[in-house]
Amino acid sequence: MRRRDWLLSTAATPIAAQAMQAAPKNIVISSANGRNACKKAMDVLKAGGDTLEAVVQGVTLVEDDPNDTSVGYGGLPNEDGIVELDASVMHGPTRRCGAVASVRSIKNVARLAKMVMEHTDHVMIAGEGATRFARAWGVPEINLLTERTRMAWMAWKQSMRDGEGRNNWTDGLDAPDKKQAAALRQIFPGADDEMIAWAMEMARHPTTGTINCLALNGKGEMSGTTTTSGLAWKLAGRVGDSPIIGAGLYVDQEVGAAGSTGRGEENIRMVGAHTIVENMRHGMHPREAALDALKRIARNYSNDEKKLNQFDINFYALRKDGVYAGASLWSGRVSRGYMASFQFAVNDGGESRLEKCVHLLERKA
Ligand code: ASP
Predict the structure, then answer these.
(1) What is the pLDDT of residues 218-267, one digit of tens each?
(2) CA distance linking residue 357 with residue 359, whole number of Å
């Protein structure tokens, strides 16, 4: 064997034999908020489009949607009330990647991450520099905060208390007593009861979100993207796992792709997406590969379920033969009084569907 061939063969170390042989097919998976995104990406694949273009067009729908408060326009803001977005992309065929972090005023950050990949000699651009890069390419700037998310942020600001029980963001001591809902109604006269209740719920229990979307086409090409507004009320400049290549996203089209949603701090510490792809490279099924990553997170807390119960994290894995899995740390979370299982979206050519994630730990109601 020539030295070059030997080097190439060791780079593509063993993955399950059936995965090496199976014929590739069009398939897109994503986090549960991505049914429309998967459908859009599938349409692009069917039309012969590139896998990265497919997932970016898919998640753009979610970034544009003001009702998804975890991604793009209408994402929940940082503690200063400013929306800061993170995103990454990875293109299997060229093995290139791009990322942006803490971006303000730009809505479609997955597209911006792709522009970093395509038009710069860098992999990641952060903060003001990312906005300036977008401006240089003529990308329009907008205010990413909606009235809905501004209200949730205001409700959160009003819910904070110092040691004396005071808060400068609520009425003064000399003001007549008022319930928070009434105070919010005064500030946002156009808001209905549902919106006020939602804002107060977000202040207490901000939801996590993000969309990770992974695609495989009939030629065996794979790409992925992850885009998010990150954790609600985060410190300004906090960067999560979504734009970190290897943590929030990793693609090796010789093996597969993986991505994550949920508390990014846990993922960054164990580089989840890369871990999952490496697990698949060494022969694990996507389901076992993702569960193994979750076990590493649990191990970082010595399997202390009280601590682990304070956050959620999910992984998504797609192998090069089209076998896939979604896996969550916990079986579900309480939503509107019910325990809802974690799910993920799949499209293999028709309508998108939701499938249940496998989970590591059982959460009691
Ligand atoms: N993973 C995202 C982050 O940590 C947040 C999320 O998915 O909810 O920024």
Answers:
(1) 999 999 999 999 999 999 999 999 999 999 999 999 999 999 999 999 99
(2) 6
Domains of the chain, earliest start first: 21-143+207-361 (3.60.20.30), 147-204 (no CATH)
Phi (first) and psi of residue 152, to 5 degrees: -60, -40
Q: Is 212 left (phi over 0), alpha (psi -120 to 50) or beta?
A: beta
19-to-45, 155, 324 alpha-carbon distances in Å: 21, 50, 11
Substitution candidate for ligand 1 out of 207, 228, 314 with most atoms within 8 A of CB:
228
**Is 356 or 340 the better-scoring residue by pLDDT?**
356
What is the pTM assigned to this prediction?
0.92
Rounded Cα distance, 228 and 210, in Å: 4
Q: Decide whether any atom of ligand 1 lies within 6 Å of the 231 Cβ.
A: yes
Token pair for 54: 């497919």
Residues 54, 50: Cα–Cα separation, whole Å = 6
